[in-house]
Amino acid sequence: MSALTEKDRPIVELLLNAGTCPRCILRFCCVGSQGLYRHPHKDLMKDLQEFLKSSEEKEDPGSLDVADPPCKRIRLEQGEEGAGDGNHNGALPQPPSAGDGHTALGSSPGKVCNVCLGILQEFCEADFVQKVCQKVNSADYQFTSFVFSVSLPPQLSVRERAAWLGVKQQMRNLGLPLAKDDIVQLKEAYKWIIHPQLSEELGVPADGKSLFEVSVVFAHPETEEECHFLATACPDCFKPAKNKQSVFTRMAVIKALEKIKEEDFLKHFPCPPSSPKNLCDALEIQCNNGAVFVAGRYNKYSRNLPQTPWIIDGERKLESSVEELISEHLMAEFKADSFNFSSSGREDVDVRTLGNGRPFAIELVNPRRIRFTAHEMKRLQQAINDSSDKIQVRDLQLVTREAIGRMKEGEEEKTKTYSALIWTDKAIQREDIAFLDDIKELKLEQKTPLRVLHRRPLAVRCRLIHTMKSEYIDQHHFRLHLKTQAGTYIKEFVHGDFGRTKPNIGSLLNRTADILELDVESVDVDWPPTLAD
């Protein structure tokens, strides 16, 4: 095998005798040639055996250059402690050395690898690749590339460490230098093998930046308790987490392996590890598309419609909401699993939103369909508008995640325009309210309103009323047009909220005032872009 040299012979011999598969042996010999890993398993086994049989021949140690780029490495040695001491408390097998005339042929083609537990064996074959592709195709996703991810059993890290310590000990016993202390990651080698096969079957390239993910979750119940000894040696590494079923996560095991002393590891685990009876199980084959974001502006014409579902103590108060009237059409067309709705502020259930509407954005999670033309988005907007007379949507368009940030940028510095119908207990004349038109940049101090105190923290917020314009109706009614800083509580500015907002219309007019109707006339956020009709 051209990628191997004489200095790799002891490693090949030890691991082959221990039941390690050919691809894992290449990993431990730090072979970075991607194409070599794609050779059939039987051919690799034959090549390794022939490599060992040629022990009497003088081979050029630098036979062939590797054209592939250097692979990523995972550091397995955390120091050189005990580098000169060959005596350890763990019992290590002593296979025939490279020079004693015996050739290691111990790993048979049907044997489960003692390191990768079969992942670089059966799960690299065409049958498994077709199984993955069938799952992808049946899920009916739109995608132009894919990223492949693998979840490995945590005990694989333990077995990999054990195999490496066995190699290290063997090289010491032979008095040979250990020039390399890193190996090719199992995940990386697996992707070298599987990516070309998946690309060919799916007809699209593998791309690390793709939003479409194909993932496989592997498990190996037979050996799942092999990492439990680490909890005794390194208890600080294994702490319960709410979203984890087991404390023995892959990251926790890796952390413990970095901390445990070599002699303590050897007391608990054979090096190299023993061969298992069974292959890994592919527990899950999943597909997931990155989120798609849709933005627009909505008008709300009903005084009996909340922005989001109104549910109190598990009981629904109103049958629908702005969020639901918009999202149900998007969910159906994009075939998404779920959604997240956000907007530039919100109005109360009894407040209308008029003018050019309120900016909103919807994140569609795991959509099956992701490509829409401008014409299709226009038709979707029309479908939403035709479905209800309570709302209307405009400027519906696909946007990026980053663009949504513009909706929230400087939110409190933005201005909003309102129209409020106000009642007073004492009779008023036109001249009684005319002075309101001359007030500019009125500073308010607003304690958190009583009506929202159950869901917002108690605080005093300073807000500005930029301008006001009054419109006399009769002795007890007038309309007030206000331009305010975003985040101003308009209802409380009118009635005072028992003195929690100062000043207020009641205190300015020196009489009791209350608000009968409120409309949002404009939300001055220049996003999303206006679309031509």
UniProtKB/TrEMBL annotation:
Signal peptide: none
Native organism: Bombycilla garrulus (Bohemian waxwing)
Alphabetized NCBIfam families for the sequence: pseudo_Pus10arc
Broad class of enzyme this protein falls into: isomerase
Classification via Gene3D superfamilies: 1.10.10.2050, 3.30.70.2510, 3.30.70.3190
Cellular localisation: Cytoplasm; Mitochondrion; Nucleus
GO biological process per UniProt: tRNA pseudouridine synthesis
GO cellular component: mitochondrion; nucleus
Gene it is expressed from: Pus10
Keyword presence, Phosphoprotein: no
EC nos: 5.4.99.25
Source species taxonomy: Eukaryota, Metazoa, Chordata, Craniata, Vertebrata
Protein name per UniProt: tRNA pseudouridine synthase Pus10
Major site of localization recorded for this protein: cytoplasm
Sequence ranges assigned to domain Pus10 N-terminal eukaryotes in this UniProt record: 113-287
